[in-house]
Design goal:
alpha/beta, Rossmann fold, 5 helices, about 40% helix, globular, binds ligand CA2
């Protein structure tokens, strides 16, 4: 099984700024942990980060042909992007939406997600560990769904 992790805008700054909100772990550390966990769970994990909406749409479309699931932190595009939502809906891959912070405890403009209605689930507020919870949940979901439809 192959999983694509996509990190949205500014997440390349993780570990360098605002540690009180986003923690001290760098993106590279998060990706290394996911890759290690992926091996434990029997799957290959590919990670990408982009600051550009259209590039994220391209990554999702490419993922649609190459992997079985997506772990996505759309960052600020969560609250604005119909294009990313449409891409997720179009490829039809199971997608777990991740947020480091609890977006519901923050400013009201962060409370709405364009992505959640097309995600199989959402994990918020557990910092970098949320990605690991998300990967476990996604792999479990894909395996269980595969059983159900006799794949
Ligand atoms: O909590 C999350 O994971 C967010 O997706 C992070 C986004 C924010 O716009 C969402 O509302 C919630 C912001 C990512 C910015 O990342 C930074 C990391 C370090 C320093 C500055 C920004």
């Amino acid at each position: 099984m192959k999983i694509q992790v996509i990190h949205g805008p500014n997440l390349n700054l993780l570990g360098q700024r605002e540690p009180e909100i986003y923690g001290r772990m760098t993106l590279e550390e998060i990706d290394n942990r996911l890759s290690r966990l992926g091996k434990e769970l029997g799957c290959e994990v590919f990670s990408s980060q982009s600051n550009h909406e259209g590039e994220i749409v391209d990554l999702i479309q490419k993922a649609g042909q190459q992997v079985q699931g997506i772990l996505l932190n759309p960052a600020a595009y969560t609250h604005t992007s119909v294009a990313i939502r449409d891409a997720i809906a179009a490829v039809g891959l199971p997608t777990v939406e991740i947020h480091l912070s609890n977006i519901h405890k923050r400013e009201s403009f962060r409370h709405h997600s364009f992505i959640s209605p097309v995600a199989i689930g959402v994990i918020v507020g557990f910092g970098a560990y949320g990605y690991e919870i998300g990967l476990r949940a996604l792999v479990h979901y894909i395996r269980e769904e595969g059983k159900k439809i006799g794949k």
